[in-house]
Amino acid sequence: MLLVYGKYHFGRTKVGVRNDYCNACEEECLAEQWRSFDCGHIYWIPLIPLGTHHRWYCAECRQDPRARYKTSFKSLKILGLVAVAILLLAFFLISPEGGDAAMILGMRIVLTLAFLGLLYWTFKGSSGGNLLNQDKRLALAPLSANVCVYCGGELANDAYLHCPACDVRIHT
Q: Residue 98's domain spans which residues?
């Protein structure tokens, strides 16, 4: 039996904006914060209220600017390391005899180099894209504290910086 389920976002409204670095686009962007009331649905009937949620989206690509989009393939690297280690062990257990001696010795050298390269690539300390992106976020210029980026109106600073006309909070 096919079970159709998912999530609805009711009452989506833009509540905030900030200057950010988007991991999906890999460039500086205007990030918008949206508020919605979420409900889980089964067969398109909203049944389970999940509450109010705030989400950030890049204004260019409509993705979460802080989410991780590149993978490290750590498990795949370890699987390759194990496979090369098993092949290397097999070629070291074979005794080189006759005409195959040069091929076996060559495979031992190639597989040893492949194993060492995979070992370095798998366990090296990554300088990390997230750290570099964090540095890029710190280097961004904050949004203007005088003018709204949407309507061009004057901003108010009561408890926090916001635009009274757009009803959008400005995050600096």
A: 74-123
Answering whether pTM is above 0.85, one says no
What total number of domains does the chain contain? 2
Shared domain for 80 and 58, answered yes or no, is: no
Average pLDDT, the chain: 86
| 60 and 137 share one domain | yes
Q: Report the first-to-last Cα separation within the chain, whole angstroms.
A: 50
Q: What is the pLDDT, as a whole number, of residue 41?
A: 94
Token duo for residue 13: 């409204």
